[in-house]
Amino acid sequence: MPDQPTMTDRPIGQPTSEPTTGQDTQPVGLRYFAAARAALGRSEETLTVPPGATVADVVARLAAATPAAEPVLARCSVLLDGRRAAPADVVPAGASLDLLPPFAGG
């Protein structure tokens, strides 16, 4: 598989302006639900990120790639491998992130 653009190291929550390619990347599976799926126009994807990337890094990358989705992404809860994640949590190789916007119902 050819190298795909990835994030570069940067402070938490700061999107990169220059994607990089290289061997120091790892796959992360993403699933989007409800308004996040509608805002991003897809229900899932796999991104490559550098080792040490955080949940905030991944969300910032998504917001930078799809600016119209940023208001929804900013309000999403994130599950990392099925457990609630904090923005500073490091995303390990092969992890799965679920982005869940707030929703009401009963």
From TrEMBL:
<feature type="region of interest" description="Disordered">
    <location>
        <begin position="1"/>
        <end position="27"/>
    </location>
</feature>
<feature type="compositionally biased region" description="Polar residues">
    <location>
        <begin position="14"/>
        <end position="26"/>
    </location>
</feature>
<dbReference type="InterPro" id="IPR003749">
    <property type="entry name" value="ThiS/MoaD-like"/>
</dbReference>
<dbReference type="InterPro" id="IPR016155">
    <property type="entry name" value="Mopterin_synth/thiamin_S_b"/>
</dbReference>
<protein>
    <submittedName>
        <fullName>Molybdopterin converting factor, small subunit</fullName>
    </submittedName>
</protein>
<dbReference type="Pfam" id="PF02597">
    <property type="entry name" value="ThiS"/>
</dbReference>
<dbReference type="InterPro" id="IPR012675">
    <property type="entry name" value="Beta-grasp_dom_sf"/>
</dbReference>
